[in-house]
Amino acid sequence: MGEPLAVGLVGAGPWADMVHAPTLAAGPDTRLAGVWARRPEASAELAAKRGVPSFVRLEELFDSCEAVAFSVPPDVQADLAARAARAGKAVLLEKPLAMDLEGARRLTDAIGEAAVASQMVFTLRYSGAARAFLDQVRGLQAFGGYGSFVSSVLSGGPFATPWRLERGALLDLGPHIVDLLDAALGRVVGVRAHGNPLGWVGLMLEHEGGAVSEASVSMAGAGELPPARIEVYGRQGHAVLDWSKVGDEAFATMVAEFASTVRNGGGHPLDARHGLRIQEILASAEAQL
Predict the structure, then answer these.
(1) 86 conformational bin, left if phi > 0, alpha if psi -120 to 50, beta if neither
(2) Which of 37, 95, 149, 203 could hold 215 in an S-S bridge, CB 3.0 to 4.6 Å?
(3) Which residues are within 8 A (CB) of 173 and not within 5 positions of it... i.e. 6 or more apart?
(4) Which of these, 217, 211, 185, lies nearest to 286 by C-alpha position?
(5) Whole-model pTM?
């Protein structure tokens, strides 16, 4: 085994503290090279917690690492990740890529022009439970399915951030559900949408090969809520996946695959181009609301 991949972290909010920093620091495939954030005091606090440098200038972070992980709002990510790509750094990206489709396309173009590796943080897709589910689905001759994801983010808490409060469930929860239905039933080729992003959004998805699925997302829930859930039905049976089956191993798998992609090349199926395609579907849905 070679040296662990040196990954710099951009962002020092709750998700960076809970997921990115500890997972990157844990190794063995990666090491946390340092932290940069728009709030220097937050960067310094998180860096001290992990025993790594806190950088004042973003370029100093780039100089310290081979790759950069992002845990910042989508509009911030679109600009800073493009700078990282132009600096020759591989990028580990949150969903959505950007706040709007134009920004997502600019970022994807910058990554392509720089010819650097990219990978999306579609959390569920790295879990053993989701991969077993998708393996099972392949034998079902699937013709349809359903997905739901309801949270209480609009009621407050650490993830009630300005962009989520402004744009709602479609841009935040939608990527997870659409990505999984796309993986389970075939490439999404059409979408119809109704509802309100700050209330309830319903999607009807048409897939290559003729399968049809429905998805519901909301961040206006309250109290104890059921986990996100995907159901797929076929001529040979059905399969179910719920978020409660996802363990912390998903994050370790994610960074291990990121390190392998950067070291070995060849790309990753959940790269920025895939993230852009999922965002294009969501942008089409949002335009209908």
Answers:
(1) alpha
(2) 203
(3) 149, 151, 217, 218, 219, 228
(4) 217
(5) 0.96
